C-alpha cells in the first residue's frame, strides 16, 4: 500500500482540473492506497460551499459530490 499526496492548484476557472485531485484520491483509496489531498493557491476557494456547488467538472460528478465522498472516505484534505 502506497501513501499518495494529490496537489490541487486549479480553481473554479478550470473545473475539470479542479476535480482531479479528489477523483484521483478516491480512485487510489478504492485501490487500497492511503491518499491525501492538498489544496494550494486558487484551489483553496473550492472548499467554500457556494463555489463547490457551482463547479461541474467534465465527465466527473459535481465538485460538491466529489468533496463529500472524499470526506466520507476519510481522505484528509489540507488547505
Protein model, in words:
This protein is globular. The chain has 79 residues and is an alpha/beta fold. Strand 1, helix 1 (15-30) and strand 2 (34-39) form a beta-alpha-beta unit. A three-stranded parallel beta sheet has the order 1-2-3, with helices on one face. Helix 1 (15-30) packs parallel to helix 3 (63-72). It has one domain (3-78). The mean pLDDT is 97. The chain is built from three helices and three strands.
List the helices and strands and how they pair.
Elements: E1 3-8, H1 15-30, E2 34-39, H2 49-54, H3 63-72, E3 77-78
Parallel strand pairs: 1-2, 2-3
Helix pairs in contact: 1-3
Task: Describe the structure in brief.
This protein has helices spanning 15-30, 49-54, 63-72, and strands spanning 3-8, 34-39, 77-78. With 79 residues, it is α/β, with parallel strands linked by helices.
- SS strand fraction: 15-25%
Distance between the termini: 25 Å
Q: Which structural category do the helix and sheet elements fall into?
A: alpha/beta
- The parts where pLDDT drops under 50 for at least 5 residues are none
Identify the notable features of this structure and list them briefly.
single chain, 41% helix
Amino acid at each position: 500500500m502506497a501513501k499518495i499526496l494529490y496537489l490541487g492548484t486549479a480553481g473554479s476557472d478550470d473545473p475539470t482540473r479542479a476535480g482531479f485531485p479528489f477523483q484521483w484520491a478516491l480512485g487510489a483509496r478504492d485501490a487500497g492506497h492511503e491518499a491525501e489531498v492538498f489544496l494550494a493557491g486558487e484551489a483553496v476557494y473550492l472548499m467554500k460551499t457556494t463555489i463547490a456547488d457551482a463547479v461541474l467538472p467534465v465527465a466527473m460528478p459535481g465538485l460538491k459530490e466529489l468533496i463529500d465522498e472524499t470526506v466520507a472516505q476519510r481522505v484528509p484534505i489540507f488547505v
